[in-house]
Amino acid sequence: MVNGDEGKLAYRGYNIEDLARESTFEETAYLLIHGALPTADQLSAFSRDLASHRKLPSAFIASLDMLPLNTPPMAILQAGVSLLAGYDPDIYDESMEANQRKAIRAIGLMPTIIAAWKRLKNNQGPVEPDESLPHAANFLYMIRGRKPAEATARFMDVSMILHAEHTFNASTFTSRVVASTGADMYASLAAGIGALSGPLHGGANAQVMRNLLDTKDPERVEAWVEDQFKRGKRVSGMGHAVYKTIDPRARILQNMAQSVVKDHPEYRWYEMTERMALATQDVFRKKKGKDIYPNVDLYSASVYHAMGIHHEFFPAVFAMSRSAGWCAHILEEKFPHPPVKPALYRPESKYAGPPERKYVPIEER
Description:
It contains 16 helices and three strands. By secondary structure, it is mainly alpha-helical. The chain is globular and about 55 Å long. The model has no long low-confidence stretch (mean pLDDT 93).
């Protein structure tokens, strides 16, 4: 549930601030997929199940090694998720229970695909997943080859919670459209990844980091913002199509980002982020006569960068987080409550082309 006017977000009725403060990604994923918070035993079983499905087949890893290194991470992820269908023993079982198992496998494997490709691009061997680590910490371990500090792992975990779901956005709607055709879980997820790969949807946090790198110096931020407005360009990470006030996820990330990077040698990226937000608000108010607020993408960029995640991979990190929400929506599309007869999504359109024309043989044209 999103209330854009009041800047509120809830998953299955639970306030996002409470989930970010008290929950974990595993618990939030369970909530989204099953519709209720788990008991301690249910969460323990769910987390073990998720961790047990992190390892990619050796043939899958070998296929990655044959691809051009300039292949975009989102293309790797989209193709990889599609290929996972071939390894799933439940692929032809469309029961609710089988689809829940597919969801767990997909959520568990997406971070491994991303980490494996990141390592290969950097001429490093893939790191085997560690089933003893929580979901977010294991991702950072596979990316960097060493276990993350507790504060770093917690930031990654909270960031994944905040990106896990956001109602009927473009990628979620795309996943549901594909699921409405009767397509399997993996095909529906791959479609959502394709929609998220577009720069107008999932690429904003990567663009925030490109902007920071382009600006380079904290003292140049204000001039850079002014120049953006003069050229009629927007500042990524500022403004939202739904929220009329600050994105509640941005407020949470702002506080966490400051604590995570305050003693980091690259703290300047966070400092520049804050200056960019203030400068954009000031210029926007002067030129447009109204306010603009940060969104979730603004504060994740500098901290992902400080963690050693290249901005080319930011949309893929977004996708592995959103996988929980996509799976929940796909399950809802396949098994609506109350049950209704399945129906294809088919938007109406108005034809705007030429009127009826007579076919002319090619030798007479």
